[in-house]
Write a structure and sequence with these properties.
Phosphorylase Kinase, domain 1, single chain, Aminoglycoside 3'-phosphotransferase, Chain: A, domain 2, Rossmann fold, 47% helix, 17 strands, 520 residues, 18 helices, alpha/beta, 3 domains, elongated
Amino acid sequence: MSAAPEQAALVAFLERPEAHGAAGPVERIDTHISHVFLAGDRAVKLKRAVKLPYVDYATVEKRRAACEEELRVNRRTAPELYRAVVPLVRRADGALAIGGAGETLDWLVVMRRFEQDSLFDRMAERGTLTPAHVAAAVETIARFHEAAERAAGGAAAIGRIVEGNAASVARAAVPRPLAPARAAALHAASRARFAALAPLLDRRGAEGRIRDGHGDLHLRNICLVGGKPVLFDAIEFDPGFRRIDVFYDFAFLLMDLVHRGLGGHANLALNGYVAASGDEGGVATLPLFLAMRAVIRGHIQATIASAADGANARREAAWAESAAYFDLAETALAPPPPALVAIGGLSGTGKSTVARAVAPRLGALPGALVLRSDVIRKRLAGVPPEARLPAGHYAPEWTERVYAELIRAAETALRGGHSVIADAVSGSAEHRAALEAAAARAGARFAGIWLEAPLAVREARIGGRAADASDADIAVARGQSEPAAASLGWRRIDAGGPRDATVARLAEALAAAGAPLRGD
C-alpha cells in the first residue's frame, strides 16, 4: 500500500534501520489508515494522510490530535504497550529523526513491540487459542466495561449503524456474494429486528449500559503480554464508534469467533461475560448485533475484492470471506425459537459437562446461556466459584434463593429470545415444576432431562474434580437418592458412559421435544 505523496519520504525513512537506532531489520505493516514499523523492541505508527467518510487525517495537526487520543484511549487497557507520542522532525542538518529538536513534519505513536504470534487471530489460525485464553480475555473485557466511562445513547445510535450498513453495502457494490434482492431482505430483517429492540436499547442506555468502550474488539486486537490477554488498538478517530452498548462492543469478539468456526469458544465467551457482568438482558440484542458486525466485515471484504486486480487468489479469498460474513449475518437474524432445557441429576452425573457440550449448538448464536446453580450459589454468597462454602449455605432457604435467581435469569434471557440451559440437581418436584412454569411464562419450549449414572461412576467423577464450582463430595453423593419415578416427569438419560454417548442421547431427546441442536 503506497504512502501519500506528502509522506513518501517519511515512510522511506521509517523503513530504514537507522531511523530506529540500527535496531535490526524493519518490518512494515500497512492498513488503510496507518503505516506501522516494527524494529527492535518497539513499534512506531504513522497515521496516513487520508480523508475518508469516517476518518480525517488530512493535516499534520489532525494526525497529532489522533495520535494523542490513541495514546489516551489505549492506555486504559494496554498501558504496558503504549509509550508515547513523539514528533518526526527534520534536524538543523537536514536529517530526519524520531523525536528531538527540529522542524516537526509529522507525529508518531511509539509502542512496545510484542510477538505477532501472540495475537489472538494468529493463535486461532494455528489452533492454539484455548478456552482458557478466551475466558481470561472475557474477564478482562468485563472489567474494562464495568470501569469504562458512561456515555449517552440508546436506540438512535444503533439505528444509524443499521442504516449506515445498508448504505455501505450499496457503495461496495457486492452483487457477487449478495444479490440485490438478498441484500434488500437482509437489510429489512435488520431493520425489523432493530424496531423490535428499540425500547430495550433505550432502556439499556438509561441503565448505564452505554460505555466508552473499545469499538474494534476482534481477535486481531487482543494479544498475550506476559501470558495475560491485553486489549489494544481501540478506535480513536471517532468516539461515536466506542461510545456504544457494551454488548455491541462485545459482539464483535463473539462474531469473529463464530466466523472462524470457534463456536464453542464463542459460547464460552458469552457465558463468561454474562456471568461476570450479570447482564442477562443483553443476550436479546445478539441477533441484531452479531449481524451488524458481520455485515460490516462483509462489505469491507467485498470492497477489498472489488479493488483487487484480476482473478487472483487474494481476490477470490476476499469474495469468499465476504460471502461467509453475509451468510453469518442472515443466520444470526433468523434464530430458532427459545427453549429452556433443564438438565438435572444427582451429583456426579455430568450435568455441567453435558451442558457445556451442547450449549454452543442450542438456540440463537452463539448458543445457549448456561445457568449453573453451583455458580449462582457462590455469586450470591459473594465468593469466587472455586471457593468452598460452609454447610449453612446449603440450607433450604439458601437453595430457594439459588433457584429463584436461576429462574429470574432464565426468564430474562428467554423473553429476549435466547435459549437457556438450567444446570441444577432439581431433585424436588417443586423445583422441576418451577422451571417448567418459567418456560411457559416466557413462551418458550421446555425440555426436562434427568441424567442417571451408577454411584461408582459418580464417585469417580467427583473424586477427579479440580477447581470446580461444585462443593459436593463423595459423602454428599452417597447421601443422595433418586426422585420417585412416578413423580419425575422428565426424560431419563443414561449418563454413565462417555460424554459423547450422553450428548447423542440428549440430542435425540431435544429433537423429540422440538428443540433440535445445530450440527457441529
